[in-house]
Write a structure and sequence with these properties.
By secondary structure, the chain is an alpha/beta fold. Helix content is about 35%, strand content about 25%. Bound molecules: adenosine-5'-triphosphate and magnesium ion.
């Protein structure tokens, strides 16, 4: 019997116009955590989906516990102890934690579903993972972190021997990431093998013993984590050396003109926000998840109604009732939850990128196809979107590349004020740098950027000024010479 619990051998996956995987192999032992890294579109998700039957390989072998398969199916995966936690969880918001845990497989007493027994079992299952979730609580009321824990508990209940996690930390708060990583370590000690995909290398370093690197659908290398370092990994992923993390900023481009002013703006609750943003400025907004930053952005964009207070844009009071109003005024918001609010997945890249600007160049409802194509090509080039053509459907792009399309759509809209809510979440290192360069280009052109981010390093690297939010109000403001992670954390924690 092989010492490996799962082996992927020479996996090839071809899509029309895309060679998503070209002879990729990896293997993992019982009780091992294997990191899987690569840039957006490298093939990570496609590779692991071959293990669940969600993707049928064009060729290659999948060997589970010595048994050979040419492809899997969801049932075969389950029978062979393979579970995948995708980024979009499958749980049902209107059911309780316990009901979700037993979804499709409830405990019955005769023909009746035994709710009490399920709740007791759920309690035990959560305890086993050292997590406190009330089994009776509706899933929709639980944080994303807890919803993910339910998915992990479900996998364990189905006796998963191999747990595959595709960017598990992306939607979580830093505290939730910590508990999730602890659960991974616990499962490892119980002999579960874990394949862990992440763009955050510090997580990969903490958890894994070996790291597999993919680039453009090719297998590049497997490294021992202990013997590797961040620079080496980045170089293997992008195929070149990235020297700086943040592009240099042109100086003295902030004008004295106030482009946006908030006066006692109040959403739900009694906190008032007062704020001024100058033309050409990159204003960073820091704060813990749930501090009210996204809500504020949505109020400026007209997506959420403000209760009271005044918003001035270019010295005129504005009252956007919906995003369309804000877009017409020259305000753009790249939302945090891009899957839900950002793209029409079943449409082409070309259509998505041009969506907010059709009004600008369509005369008598005839679309000028040349301008349309040029706009799309420019964004694809600047954001390094990996796609065989501008007509590719957005749903066929990798997660990170979908995000780039949404970003491109707002950049093409030629707005004066661009609010970016967590713009680099799920984006690989090379493309991050490109996004930072775009932020600089925007302000160079006299545009203004509000950058909401949970990555303090990014805020410090990119902002001209940082304001910190806590529980719906501004708890402090930092000028460039005062920037530090400690200063931000200190302000984020009090109110
Ligand atoms: N159904 C599909 N049809 C066509 N191309 C596809 C399809 N699914 C994936 N691809 C392509 O395969 C390549 C690999 O995508 P994959 O989602 O595996 O990347 P990834 O490494 O997971 O990237 P990310 O970090 O952005 O999530 C991409 O170029 C993607 O556009
Ligand atoms: Mg992916």
């Amino acid at each position: 019997m092989s010492e490996y619990i799962l082996e992927l051998q020479h996996i090839v996956k071809k899509y029309p116009g895309v060679l998503a995987l070209n002879d990729v192999s990896l293997k993992i032992k019982k009780g091992q955590i294997l990191g899987l890294i690569g840039e957006n579109g490298a093939g990570k998700s496609t590779l692991i989906k071959t293990c669940s039957g969600a993707v049928i390989p064009t060729s290659g072998k999948i060997i589970v516990n010595g048994k050979e398969f040419t492809h899997m199916s969801p049932q075969l995966a389950r029978e062979n102890g393979i579970a995948i936690i995708y980024q979009e969880f499958n749980n049902i918001k209107g059911l309780s934690a316990a009901e979700n845990l037993f979804l499709g497989n409830p405990i019955r007493k005769g023909i009746v579903i035994d709710k009490k027994a399920m709740e007791e079992e759920a309690e035990k299952a959560f305890e086993q993972l050292n997590i406190k979730i009330d089994p009776k609580e509706l899933c929709g009321n639980l944080s994303v972190g807890y919803q993910q824990m339910i998915e992990i508990a479900k996998a364990i209940r189905l006796d998963a021997k191999v747990l595959i996690m595709d960017e598990p930390s992306a939607p979580l708060t830093s505290k939730e990431v910590e508990s999730m990583m602890q659960v991974c370590e616990l499962l490892k000690s119980q002999g579960v093998a874990i394949i862990y995909i992440s763009h955050r290398l510090e997580e990969i370093f903490r958890l894994s013993s070996e790291i597999v690197v993919l680039r453009d659908g090719e297998y590049i290398d497997t490294l021992k984590t202990e013997e590797s370092n961040v620079d080496e990994l980045i170089q293997l992923m992008v195929g070149r050396q990235l020297k700086e993390s943040y592009p240099k900023k042109p100086k003295n481009i902030i004008s004295d003109e106030i482009i946006l002013k908030l006066e006692d703006v109040c959403g739900n609750g009694d906190r008032h926000v007062n704020l001024e943003v100058r033309k050409g400025e990159v204003l960073g907004i820091a704060g813990l998840v749930g501090a009210g930053r996204t809500e504020l952005a949505q109020m400026i964009f007209g997506a959420v109604k403000k209760d009271s207070g005044k918003i001035y844009f270019n010295n005129k009071e504005i009252n956007p009732k919906c995003p369309k109003d804000a877009i017409e005024l020259g305000i753009a918001l790249v939302p945090e939850d891009r899957k839900r609010h950002g793209a029409i997945l079943h449409n082409s890249i070309n259509h998505n990128i041009n969506m907010p600007i059709y009004d600008h160049f369509s005369k008598f409802s005839k679309i000028n196809e040349k301008i349309e194509k040029d706009t799309t090509n420019k964004q694809i080039k600047e954001l390094l979107v990996k796609t065989p053509s501008i007509n590719q459907l957005v749903k066929n792009l990798s997660g990170g590349n979908q995000q780039k399309v949404i970003l491109g759509k707002w950049l093409a809209a030629n707005s004066q004020l661009i609010i970016l809510d967590e713009p680099t979440r799920g984006i690989d290192v090379g493309a991050k740098f490109e996004i930072y360069k775009i932020i600089n280009t925007l302000v160079e052109k006299g545009k203004t950027v509000i950058l909401i981010s949970s990555e303090m390093e990014e805020l410090i690297g990119m902002s001209d000024r940082i304001i910190v939010f806590s529980e719906g109000c501004i708890t402090g403001e930092l000028q460039k010479d005062e920037f530090s992670q400690n200063a931000i954390m200190g302000l984020a924690a009090n109110c």
